[in-house]
Design goal:
The protein has 130 residues and is mainly β. The protein contains one helix and six strands. It has one domain. A two-stranded parallel sheet has the order 1-4. Strands 2-5 form a two-stranded parallel ribbon. Strands 3-6 form a two-stranded parallel ribbon. The longest helix has 9 residues. InterPro entries: Spore_germ_GerPE. Pfam families: GerPE (PF10970).
């Protein structure tokens, strides 16, 4: 892996959430994983069984990784090996996102989200009757 000096003068990030990464410098391997289950109802009613990831196949399915071709070995000479960043401003990183200043050899990120929306029957009936 190529070695560089990563120099950042100013970085301002408001929020970093749910398996997100801020990396300044070189990395051999980065892994991030996040899963979310959003159950939206008109009223705040809880039945006690919410949050069971095993009930939804999206969370147990294997991650399909592409088969990448063998890349040739590259030798590089960096006349100016420094990465210089004056300023970065980010509002938010979420759900297995990454911000990196530098080189990475291997990155694996996986985010799975399942949204459930409960729509009351009277709303559905009104929409069908119009």
């Amino acid at each position: 892996m190529w070695k560089r000096n990563s120099m950042v003068e100013t970085i301002h990030i408001t929020n970093i959430l749910f398996s997100s990464i801020l990396e300044i410098g070189d990395t051999a391997q980065t892994r991030g994983f996040s899963r979310a289950l959003a159950d939206q109802r008109r009223e705040e009613i809880f039945f006690g069984k919410e949050g069971n990831f095993g009930a939804y196949s999206i969370f147990s399915e294997p991650t399909l990784m592409p088969i990448l071709p063998e890349l040739p070995k590259i030798q590089k000479y960096q006349a100016l090996p420094n990465i210089r960043v004056r300023s970065i401003r980010i509002k938010g990183l979420s759900a297995s996102a990454i911000t990196q200043i530098g080189s990475t050899h291997n990155v694996y990120m996986d985010s799975r989200v399942h949204h459930i929306r409960h729509i009351p029957a009277e709303i559905m009936n009104n929409e069908e009757g119009e």
